[in-house]
Each structure stands twice: as C-alpha cells, then as structure tokens.
Amino acid sequence: MKLDRRSLLGLLGAGATTACATTPAATQAGPVAFLHGVASGDPDTRSAIFWTRVTPADPAAGDVVLALEVARDADFGDIVRRSTGLRARAERDFTVKHDLDGQGLEPGSEYFYRFVAAEAISPVGRVRTLPEGATPDVVMAVVSCQLYPGGLFNAYDAIAGLERLDAVVHLGDYIYEYGAEADDYGMVAGQQLGRTPQPPHEIVSLSDYRTRHAQYKTDPDLQAAHARAAFICVWDDHEVANDTWSAGAENHQPATEGDFAARKAAALRAYYEWMPIREPKAGAMKQAINRAFDFGDLATLAMVETRLTARAEQLSYADLTMTAEGTPDVAAFEARRQDPSRDLLGDDQRRWLTDTLARSRAAGRPWQVLGNQVVTARVKGPQIDQMMPPEQVAGLLAGLPADIRPQVEASIQLFKLGLPFNLDSWDGYPAARERLYAAFQAAGVEPIVLAGDSHAFWVNELHDDAGRRAAVEFGTSSISSPSPADAVGGLPLGLALMAANPQEVKFCDQSSKGFILLTLDRDQATADLRAVSTIMAKPYETRTVKRYRVARTATGLGPLIDG
Q1: Which residues, in sequence order, are bridge partners of residue 232?
Q2: Which of 10, 93, 470, 542 lies 20 to 30 A from 376 at CA?
Q3: Residue 63 gets which letter from DSSP?
Q4: What are 264-308's pLDDT values in tens digits?
C-alpha cells in the first residue's frame, strides 16, 4: 500500500487519526493528567508542531481523546483553531503531536495553546509563527547538552523568562543514556541533588528510552522553556549513545547490549514520540532530519545531522602508533585523519545544504545560519607548559583528583605534537570540513555556524585550507553537563586553547554553563553568551560572559567585535 505523508502520520499517531482506523479503538473514560507539560516545534508561517503527553489513570483502558486549542490570548477568549478527535495512543507512549497543516494562523504572530482531555486541561504554551516578508529582527536562544543528574536546569528557567524570544535552537544531547551508579557520568552532582536517572541503568530498549525522555520532561524548568517558545531541534550522540557514528557508538557493546541498529531504531522512535519535531516524510530515513526555516526576508536557519547518516567512525589517540625509533608516528596518524573518505554529512545532505544556502542568498536574505552539532573550528590541543613555569604546572597537576591526573598528564604530552583537541568534532574529519567550506563558497555565502556538544562557549573564525575565512562560529556551553574545565581544577584551559589557536579561536570559556542569545537584524548579528551562576542550587543569577557582534557588509561578514 502506498502511503502519502498524511496517511503515514496518521498511522504513526501524529495527529487526528480516526479516519485511518478501520474499527474504532477503545477510548479512556477515566481521569487523565498532563504531567510532562506542552511543547511546540518546527514552526512555519502558519503552523507548528504541537506536542503533549497524556498520563492515563489506566494505560490499558485504550486511547485518550483530546483536543488542541490555539488562541490569540492567554485566557483563550479568542480561540482561532480547535482541533478535536486527537488520540493519545499506547503504541506512541500516549504522546500526541499535531500539525495544523499550514492553516489558521498568521505569519509572525504569537499564539497561546493548550490541550483538553475530558476534565483535564494542560498547561498553556506560547508559540510564534515564522514571519513573512519584511522582518526587522529575529531572537533565538541556542542550547545544548542537558544532563539530568549533572545539575539543575537553571538556564532553561532563564530562557523561559526572556521578554523576547522567537525560537529555541537545540543542538542535541537532549537526554543522556548513562545509568545511576555512583561512578556514572554526572552522578557526583546527581547524588547531591537527588537527581537520579530513570531507569537507573544505561538505556538500551524502547521502554528505557521512553522512560528517560519522560523523566527529563518532568523537570519544571525544561517544561517552562518548552512552554515559552517553539524548539527547533536536532539530536547529537547521547540521544542514542556516546560518540555515535553511522554504524555504532563508543558506548555500545554488541556482546552485552545487542544489535546497534535495533538500539538506534528504539532511540529514534522514542525521540520522535517525545519531541516536538515533524515526522520524517514517507520514504525518508528517520535519521535524515536536515531541514530549513526561513525567518521572513532576514535569515535562513539550516539544521544538519552529523551523527547517524554519514559519519565515519571516530579516530582515537589510542590509534597513535610508535615509530621504529620509539616516537609517536604522527605522520601515519595524520594520514588517517586526513583521509578524504572520512565524512560527517554525506553527499546528499551536502547537496541539500548547498542548495538551501544558495536559495536563501538568491532570495536576498542577509543571514544564513547553520545549526550543527559539534565544534567546526581548527582547535589544536593546548600548550599548558608554554603558559606557565614547570613548577606551576606540577603544582596544578598535583592538585587534581588521582583518577584525572594521569589523563591530563598524558594530554599535555600528546598536545605538544600539535594534534587536535577533540577528534569527535570536525577536527577529526578535516577533508569533510573542507567540503563543507566549499559548499559555503558554492552557495556564495559566509554563514554563522552554531555548535553544541563541547560543554563550552566558543567564538571562532573559520578558515579553509587556503586561509580564506569561510564563516564565523558561536558555540554554546551546556545547560548542565560537566564542562572540561570542571575536571582540571585551576588549569586555564580556555585561555590555553585561545593561545594555541589564535587564528580561529577568538574566545573560549571552558567552565560556564548557559546558553547563547543570538539576535539578528538587518545590519548585524549579536551573540550574547549567557551563563548562570550555579547549577547546584536556587536562586541563581544570570550574567553575560561575553558579547560579540559581526556586521553584515556588502561583501560578506565583517570582523568579529568583542563588546
């Protein structure tokens, strides 16, 4: 049977699906609750994806029938759309997504929405549709990496309180897969805060991934951010397992955890159920989620996928062999790293990106923004021993925890060889990065690249192998995931990375937690690096770590200006 998009979404339970059923399904008559908030995502000029999850008193009693109401006011005195007959089904973990199919809403307008099921009414959310035509400015919050046991989601509370916000761009690591053992990732903070992952083991099955998504969406700060504005999301690695690539992951052991393809399928199914993101079109791979959003005549945001579609397996410094003279064989390692076959995007996605950026430029939009998971800049490992005398380095090393000290000592020696800081980033795929920069040049654009994953703030200028500036990059720190500097005490890691990479790294903060507030207007882009004072308590304070501006000129982007 050939299915069009509407039929496919119906069978997946993404909208009002009564027309797809050959026999009416049983429905709940008992009480229900909305324990996981509401969310919107993937906005267009006249609609968005509207999401919630219904918790029934008796999950075995059948579907929950509910309605979506969209209004111009928070009191719902002026309802502009009411979609009835929506069904929360057990086969989709009682989650519901509904798309208004481009009808009923006005471009560039803010609306309020809620779901109603029997006597229960959900929390109220806000959503702004994409503008059409003349658009003076756009404001986006850029976020990444929220580890539930790692700390409180204070940054989301700060985002929820923003007076102006058009969308939240989430660059991945929305959940983490680790368990709740004392030595599991983030559990030092998790034990202090009573934030224990559920289920308490590493997640592998569909039920596991659903339970973990459900736990994250009970967090009140995350709920508040979702209710504040539409999210535009892409996954990174931890939505499946650490350091995923197209056919595996560092944190997947087939002998004990089964087939990776099955784990990936379970993770993606739960992701699509629990996230306010459009379902893949009929015939498209679920892992191909590249898509674009036009903000009137001002900007295009292109979201790419760098993990599951085309990524080659990561290299590791454990692969660094020794020469016959007993020295590290850097030349052999570099030959592997520079292998042209190593890729992140793949040919199909790269062609799509080139076409998307070119169309944006042809339409006269001054800004092209790339939503990308990992840091793009060339970042050599830091030369700590060149920044301070040996006795000071020895003192800092002596103050590190015993389990961390050998790794830091080894890294200091390794980075003397001029090798990259992070092989999981674009630095592990330099030929692919050159192809990305060639795509920018072919499209005739110098974009703003956004990056997550690193748990650090970055402001970078990106140059190709010939030295031509290809783009500027703003990397956001984490919401709550541990930053590299958290583990190395007083070592000035951010300053060391800036010193080692003066051409590309203009600013690096390896300790703050927070988000980027990106504002685009006709003349310039402004990136405010916003940090929260703590993730271990409330109340907290928010500060701007740095503000960088870049002007749009007749020939491309101007210089990055600090302040």
Answers
A1: 169
A2: 542
A3: B
A4: 999 999 999 999 999 988 777 778 899 999 999 999 999 999 999
3-state secondary structure of 499: helix
Gap between the Cα atoms of 235 and 207, Å rounded: 19
Instruction: Identify whether the C-beta of residue 353 lies closer than 8 Å to the C-beta of residue 316.
Output: no
Reference 55, options 109, 81, 93; nearest CA is 93
Looking at residue 27, the DSSP 8-state letter turns out to be: B
Task: Summarize pLDDT for 449-503 with one digit per residue, the tens.
Answer: 999 999 999 999 999 999 999 999 999 999 999 998 887 776 789 999 999 999 9
What are the tens digits of pLDDT across the range 64-86? 999 999 999 999 999 999 999 99
Residue ranges of E strands in 282-328: 291-295, 299-303
1-130 homologous superfamily: Purple acid phosphatase-like, N-terminal (2.60.40.380)
Q: What is the pTM of this model?
A: 0.93
Tokens of 429: 């795929």
| Backbone torsion region of residue 72, taken as left when φ is above 0, otherwise alpha when ψ lies between -120 and 50, otherwise beta | alpha
- Among candidates 222, 262, 277, 238, which has minimal Cα distance to 51? 277
The domains of the chain are located at 1-130
**Rounded Cα gap, residues 223 and 218, in angstroms:** 7
Cis peptide before 123 (omega within 30 of 0): no
The rounded distance, in Å, linking the Cα atoms of 340 and 350 is: 15
Among residues 275, 506, 463, 277, the alpha carbon closest in space to that of 376 is found at: 463
Amino acid at 324: A
